[in-house]
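ok new one. same drill as before - structure tokens go in, u give me an amino acid for every spot. 467 of them this time. try not to just spam alanines like last time pls lmao
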């Protein structure tokens, strides 16, 4: 006979009996677990639905604004001389740009020394920015001079570190070749207003002939120890015949919404073309179509019923989802009245039998020739006149559904509330099952002990002597 690890008598299998009885008792718990799994499945599908809706809403909102339609591109006939890029709102046109001179940073260098550990000494350096040469140097009254403290007995490397740590508008580096090591000092920015003077206060702790005082420099000065490698100068360009002076070789101020980069001096003008960026507009339309098709496919899957397997999608029969699908399809097939290009099909975006959208490239290319009409189709906002673009209609619908008080948010909160109810039931039932199991173990353990005692009594009787 099987023995029990719980009962002490070993006459019956207490574990097996209790296990079988508890499997029956757990039937309600299984039903609750199935309900929770079903709710979790729906929550997961609603989460996917919300993500797809939000993606479509973003694409629709993008097409509803002016930015997507005012995208521009710039091209340079000689990008090695002039680079050009355009941002939204750039005025289409043809331009001519000649680079006569590049902007430069003032750059100074010391004479060579044995190495970076060469003794320079301490004191202070004062950097003053301004413009002009020699006695004509005029300090910039809007920029206070910056004093750089250098510790006594400083090496060339330590002087470099003191300059770089002072945030004085100049940077220093060591340059080493066969002749030795030099300290190079360069203005952080280019342009004629970035000329700088260096005043030095030497504490005398440097080596003979090499002290902090040797770093003093006034623009145009050729008698000191510092050599000027580059002068602080502006870029000189001729733009459509107009002479222009710019502090930097990279500018976004020359004309609105266009950035230029001057890379080389050229004797001949460079042609710059700025036009509408049809590819950027096409990309925005493709993103809208892709997002719509993703949502359309997801809804079809979630609400489908397969008669062969008798299985339904997680949101099959959901009125909110069905209503959203109907409204979206109605918007896609409707006509925006009062504009030249009133239907998606007119723009080369065609509705398929399964409700998805497909781009007819030839037709869309024709529509892209006049992006203003396409823009009206998606972004018209004449509320009083009842003319609302498709992008705005889709955006408004999804805003309502996804908002805090929207149907999708409400459905999500409802599912979460139902799940919490079942979780509480599960917890209470689990506590009850624990008590039932303990009671059954006690009862059948007691029965096992009683049967064992009775078996012992019968064995004793059977061993009595017979007459």
């Amino acid at each position: 006979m099987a023995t029990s690890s719980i009962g002490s008598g070993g006459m019956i299998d207490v574990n097996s009996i209790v296990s079988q009885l508890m499997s029956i008792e757990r039937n309600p718990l299984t039903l609750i677990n199935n309900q929770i799994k079903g709710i979790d499945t729906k929550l997961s599908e609603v989460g996917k639905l919300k993500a797809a809706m939000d993606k479509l809403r973003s694409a629709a909102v993008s097409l509803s604004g002016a930015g997507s339609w005012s995208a521009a591109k710039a091209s340079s006939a000689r990008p090695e001389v002039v680079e050009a890029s355009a941002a939204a709102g750039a005025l289409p046109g043809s331009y001519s740009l000649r680079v006569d001179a590049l902007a430069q940073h003032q750059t100074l260098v010391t004479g060579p020394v044995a190495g970076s550990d060469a003794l320079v000494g301490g004191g202070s350096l004062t950097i003053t920015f301004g413009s002009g040469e020699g006695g004509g140097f005029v300090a910039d009254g809007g920029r206070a001079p910056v004093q750089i403290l250098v510790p006594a007995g400083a090496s060339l490397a330590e002087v470099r570190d003191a300059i770089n740590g002072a945030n004085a508008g100049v940077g220093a580096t060591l340059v080493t070749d066969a002749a030795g090591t030099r300290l190079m000092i360069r203005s952080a920015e280019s342009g004629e207003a970035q000329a700088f003077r260096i005043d030095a206060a030497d504490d005398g702790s440097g080596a003979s002939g090499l002290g902090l005082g040797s770093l003093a420099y006034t623009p145009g000065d050729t008698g000191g120890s510092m050599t000027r490698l580059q002068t602080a100068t502006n870029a000189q360009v001729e733009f459509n015949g107009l002479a222009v002076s710019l502090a930097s070789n990279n500018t976004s101020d020359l004309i609105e919404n266009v950035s230029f980069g001057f890379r080389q001096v050229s004797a001949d003008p460079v042609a710059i073309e700025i036009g509408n960026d049809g590819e950027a507009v096409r990309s925005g339309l493709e993103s809208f179509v892709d997002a719509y098709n993703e949502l359309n496919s997801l809804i079809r899957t979630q609400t489908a019923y397969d008669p062969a397997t008798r299985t339904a999608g997680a949101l099959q029969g959901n009125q909110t989802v069905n209503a959203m699908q109907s409204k979206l399809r109605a918007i896609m097939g409707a006509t925006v009245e009062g504009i030249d290009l009133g239907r998606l099909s007119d723009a080369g975006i065609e509705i398929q039998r399964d409700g998805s959208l497909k781009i007819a490239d030839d037709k869309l290319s024709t529509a892209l020739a006049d992006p203003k009409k396409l823009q009206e189709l998606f972004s018209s906002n004449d509320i009083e006149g009842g003319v609302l673009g498709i992008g705005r209609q889709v955006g408004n619908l999804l805003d309502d559904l996804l908002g805090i008080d929207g149907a999708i948010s409400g459905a999500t909160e409802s599912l979460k509330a139902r799940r919490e109810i079942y979780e509480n039931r599960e917890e209470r039932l689990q506590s009850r099952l624990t008590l039932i199991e303990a009671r059954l173990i006690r009862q059948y353990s007691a029965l096992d002990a009683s049967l064992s005692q009775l078996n012992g009594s019968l064995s004793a009787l059977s061993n009595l002597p017979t007459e």
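The chain has three domains: 1-71+278-447, 72-103+235-276, 107-230. and btw The longest strand covers residues 93-101.
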